[in-house]
Amino acid sequence: MISPGDRLSPPLPRRRFVEVLLGGGFLATVVAFVYPVLQYLIPPKEADLGSDSVVAGRTGELKPNSGKIFRFGNRPGILIRTSSGEYRAMSAICTHLSCTVQYRDDMQHVWCACHNGHYDLNGKNIAGPPPRPLELFEAQVRGDEIFVRRRRET
After folding, report:
1. First-to-last CA distance in the chain?
2. Interstrand relation of 87-91 and 102-104 (parallel, antiparallel or unpaired)
3. Residues in the chain with pLDDT values less than 70
4. 48 Cβ contact list (under 8 Å, min separation 6)
5. Contact, 131 vs 41, CB < 8 A?
6. What's the Cα-to-Cα distance from 97 to each of 10, 48, 107, 112, 114, rounded to whole Å?
7. How far, in Å, CA of 86 to CA of 40, rounded?
């Protein structure tokens, strides 16, 4: 029972209610703008979904002095058949700005069209802006299939 001396707590004033509502809306707006910017600046690490060995092609598929792009896990690789018939495989991601490289049969080396980067058939950067060589893979012919696998550090 409420005695006449007891005071009830005062109701929440309308002004305070509006301040809380506007503050929450402002905070949600800031988070909606900042979160995508942080996602862009700090991209999540990509999981390598592939294995250490893939079938990159068949022996009759490539003629001498040609190349093709194949999928190695979640990244592209490039398989090259040299003029002498030897198979070479390497990453197809330019070390400059991660563009996909291609084999140029007229120059007989790997070329990045984005910023005119050049790599020799051993993946070594020989001209242009690429700062590092391409990652080399091992290419082995088994039957009529060409297997490519990552090089193991010894």
Report:
1. 85
2. unpaired
3. 1-12, 46-50, 152-154
4. 73, 74, 75
5. no
6. 63, 19, 22, 10, 8
7. 42
The Cα–Cα gap between 72 and 89 comes to 11
Rounded Cα distance, 112 and 30, in Å = 40
Q: pTM for this structure?
A: 0.68
| CA 93 centroid distance within chain | 9
Nearest CA to 126 out of 136, 114, 134 is that of 134
Tens digit of each residue's pLDDT (9 = 90 or more) over 14-56? 888 899 999 999 999 999 999 999 988 887 776 565 678 899 9
The answer to whether 70 and 48 are in contact (CB under 8 A) is: no
- What distance in Å separates the CA atoms of residue 132 and residue 98, rounded to the nearest whole number? 12
- 121 with 133: CB under 8 angstroms? no
Alpha carbon distance 15, 27 (integer Å)? 18
* Strand arrangement of the beta sheet that strand 66-72 belongs to: 53-58, 145-150, 136-142, 87-91, 75-81, 66-72
